[in-house]
């Protein structure tokens, strides 16, 4: 099993670029297609924390569901945002990459180099 994991959405150009960069470095990561197999609450919260992000930083604001659910409301707490991300995994920003050196939300793509 690979020591590197990517939460990947093949429709996302940034996610594809990070995967290409990993492979160019000789790394074949474990690929989690998180839209089909979303993380559980504890795993998602842990990845966000280990990446040094707030839950709000990890939510994808450009998705229609973000506005439709009123997730821009600053009164919403982390639990409500996590609930929304778990209900609609497309709201999880991507790609998250996990290595033995840490976790990063790899936007921009070059952030993955911090943990290689």
From TrEMBL:
- Please verify whether the record's keywords include Oxidoreductase: yes
In which domain of life is the source organism classified?
Bacteria
InterPro entries under this entry? Answer: Arsenate_reductase (IPR006659), Arsenate_reductase-like (IPR006660), Thioredoxin-like_sf (IPR036249)
Q: Which GO terms describe its molecular function?
A: arsenate reductase (glutaredoxin) activity
Q: Write down the EC number.
A: 1.20.4.1
Q: Which UniProt keywords apply?
A: Arsenical resistance, Oxidoreductase
Q: Which reaction does it catalyse?
A: [glutaredoxin]-dithiol + arsenate + glutathione + H(+) = glutathionyl-S-S-[glutaredoxin] + arsenite + H2O
Record-stated family: Belongs to the ArsC family.
Report the protein name in the record: Arsenate reductase
């Amino acid at each position: 099993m690979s020591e590197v994991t990517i939460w990947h959405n093949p429709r996302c150009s940034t996610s594809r670029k990070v995967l290409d960069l990993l492979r160019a470095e000789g790394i074949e990561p474990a690929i989690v297609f998180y839209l089909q197999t979303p993380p559980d609450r504890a795993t998602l919260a842990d990845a966000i924390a280990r990446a040094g992000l707030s839950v709000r930083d990890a939510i994808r604001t450009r998705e229609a569901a973000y506005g439709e659910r009123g997730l821009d409301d600053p009164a919403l707490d982390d639990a409500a945002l996590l609930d929304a991300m778990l209900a609609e995994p497309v709201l999880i920003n991507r790609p998250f990459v996990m290595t033995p050196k840490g976790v990063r939300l790899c936007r921009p793509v070059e952030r993955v180099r911090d943990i290689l």
